[in-house]
């Protein structure tokens, strides 16, 4: 993986960002149902509106979440339905569920093999994922499953997905190695954020996607207010004081394979 980050302005619109990097296909991972909607729903909606193919993958079933449940199986079914509804709101073409147990996720080889297999089927230009580094300013964002998901996705993105000798059974099944170009990591510590996506005008779609996860919000109005305030703050941070008010989502954008990438460096 190259040490440098992909160049980006302080604020980029989703369509312009995709055009700048030549992205056409997006694969976005979340540890639980609703993680992607908190972290990136507006950006994903902007990508979909710009004509990109957006696919989502939820690694655990979210069976340990919620406030009103008849047990893990009922919660799993409920949360799958909620995520599908949220995905439809943002324009995602497909949702994949890996079925790991909520609260027990580890970035081991079985999980990574399935992530690599999905990456090779979808062949995305850019992959979204939770950040694998803990943000000590937000323990909620740094849930252990989020960190494990991020670590598994990053390890899959390099080197496993592009190494023909990694998981040779995948190549034998018709899933050859290929190179991922970029990672966009959400829920990143502040020091790692180097990209703000201007999602002004897409705020309501993000809130609608989050509202689909009704099992997770004992105070839905409080959630909506907090999310809108965070998007406004992300925009202020990127645009600077005195700029018109707007909304943004923040990421750590990483170049995995760029023009100057040399194998092994």
Topology, element by element:
Blueprint: H1 14-21, E1 25-30, H2 35-49, E2 53-60, H3 72-90, E3 94-100, H4 109-122, E4 126-130, H5 144-157, H6 168-172, E5 182-186, E6 195-198, H7 203-211, H8 220-239, E7 248-255
Parallel strand pairs: 1-2, 1-4, 2-3, 4-5
Antiparallel strand pairs: 5-7, 6-7
GO molecular function, one term: hydrolase activity, acting on carbon-nitrogen (but not peptide) bonds, in linear amides
Pfam families: PIG-L
Protein name: LmbE family N-acetylglucosaminyl deacetylase
Describe what this molecule looks like in 3D.
The protein is of the alpha/beta class. It has a single domain, classed as LmbE-like (Rossmann fold). Helices cover 39% and strands 16% of the residues. It contains eight helices and seven strands. Strands 3-2-1-4-5-7-6 form a seven-stranded mixed sheet, with helices on both faces. Strand 1, helix 2 and strand 2 form a beta-alpha-beta unit. Helix 3 runs antiparallel to helix 7, helix 4 packs across helix 5 and helix 7 packs antiparallel against helix 8. The chain is globular, with a radius of gyration of 18 Å. The N terminus is likely disordered. This is LmbE family N-acetylglucosaminyl deacetylase. InterPro entries: GlcNAc_PI_deacetylase-related, LmbE-like_dom_sf. Keywords: Zinc. It comes from Micrococcus flavus. GO terms for molecular function: hydrolase activity, acting on carbon-nitrogen (but not peptide) bonds, in linear amides.
